[in-house]
């Protein structure tokens, strides 16, 4: 950890503070708004007292953004100078067309994210085989098709500056998507990381019960290039951020958060990514414009999982049948063994990794 860098920075905030209605002030001039499970950010340009919006959440988020903006800036100031997209997944671009049209505001993204915002390409398919819970299992139903925001779309400047925000720079952090970016404010070490990594595991019963914040890798079922994702986390950890605000979860602060991020980076192969999955052995490939040019087949992984699941289920079924012919303790034991094997079949299919004591529950929980 680079302590000199950390100490040189302003200590602008040590925790986020609620400002009502699922909204928090993260640090001076930066607010987080949560809609269902995803965050958007409002950043005020303190030099000029205007603001930009980072990501647009789901379709339901537009009205919540309007109402937070007017409570912060008053009715007349409730239109931003720009919308900046960390990436274009459905839960980050849900209100984009509605708000860009209403505000007539330019929308900035990395040039490799353009295909997904100009109607040209769909993202590679989600990978429901990564395990971890219902969000993964259902991921094949999430929209992956593009929208067309060409009328408003501009590319982020090559020099790393962020339009309308003097204090900020953008960093290309691919892996989760080819044109994924993060935003960084050097003076107080405030990082908005999008989904390059996230700070929640909301599918984990343990995490929900204890409200423990956790630095996790990018949402697993939606990440088609794990090598790039690992390099991006390493690059973000090297910034030694003091405040980490991500696409999902609470903001995290200070030494503890930094330590967690470094740990994630060091042990990315076991904490940040799934053990198996469609994109684990082979990444999806994209051309220089961000369009997918090679998408690994799902067959190998799925067939293997289905074969394991079928074998476990058959064994569980046979043992459960055997139970009828046994008595007392052995009846109980065979019953339990049969149920355990049938549950393991579900685990093999990725239904609920946390249900199996033999598998680590933390790294396999999806974070969206
Ligand atoms: Zn995403
Ligand atoms: Zn997301």
Automatic annotation (TrEMBL):
Residues 37-248 form the Metallo-beta-lactamase domain. Transmembrane segments: none annotated. Gene3D superfamilies: Ribonuclease Z/Hydroxyacylglutathione hydrolase-like (3.60.15.10). InterPro entries: Metallo-B-lactamas, NDM-1-like, RibonucZ/Hydroxyglut_hydro. This is Glyoxylase, beta-lactamase superfamily II. The lineage of its organism: Bacteria, Pseudomonadati, Bacteroidota, Chitinophagia, Chitinophagales.
């Amino acid at each position: 950890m680079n302590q000199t860098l950390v100490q040189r920075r302003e200590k602008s905030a040590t925790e986020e503070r609620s400002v009502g209605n699922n909204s928090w002030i993260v640090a001076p001039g930066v607010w987080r708004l949560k809609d269902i499970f995803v965050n958007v950010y409002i950043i005020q340009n303190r030099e000029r007292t205007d603001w930009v919006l980072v990501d647009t959440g789901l379709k339901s988020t537009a009205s919540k953004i309007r109402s937070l903006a007017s409570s912060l800036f008053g009715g007349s100031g409730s239109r931003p100078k720009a919308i900046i997209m960390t990436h274009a997944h459905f839960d980050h671009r849900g209100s984009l067309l509605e708000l860009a049209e209403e505000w007539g505001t330019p929308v900035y993204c990395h040039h490799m994210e353009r295909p997904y915002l100009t109607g040209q390409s769909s993202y590679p398919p989600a990978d429901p085989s990564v395990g971890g819970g219902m969000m993964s299992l259902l991921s094949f139903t999430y929209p992956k098709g593009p929208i067309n925001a060409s009328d408003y779309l501009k590319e982020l400047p090559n020099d790393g500056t962020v339009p309308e925000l003097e204090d900020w720079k953008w960093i290309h952090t691919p892996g989760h998507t080819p044109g994924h970016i993060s935003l960084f404010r050097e003076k107080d070490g405030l990082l908005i990381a999008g989904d390059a990594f996230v700070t929640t595991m909301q599918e984990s019963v343990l995490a929900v019960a204890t409200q423990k914040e956790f630095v996790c890798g990018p949402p697993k079922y939606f990440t088609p290039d794990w090598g790039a994702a690992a390099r991006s986390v390493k690059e973000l950890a090297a910034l030694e951020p003091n405040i980490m605000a991500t696409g999902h979860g609470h903001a995290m602060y200070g030494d503890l958060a930094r330590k967690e991020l470094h740990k994630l980076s060091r042990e990315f192969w076991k904490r940040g990514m799934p053990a198996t999955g469609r994109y684990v052995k082979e990444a999806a490939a994209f051309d220089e414009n961000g369009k997918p040019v090679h998408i690994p087949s799902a067959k190998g992984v799925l067939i293997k999982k289905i074969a394991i699941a079928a074998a476990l289920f058959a064994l569980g079924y046979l043992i459960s049948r055997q139970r009828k012919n046994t008595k007392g303790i052995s009846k109980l034991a065979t019953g339990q063994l049969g149920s355990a094997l049938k549950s393991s079949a579900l685990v093999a299919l990725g239904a609920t990794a946390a249900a199996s004591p033999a598998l680590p529950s933390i790294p396999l929980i999806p974070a969206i």
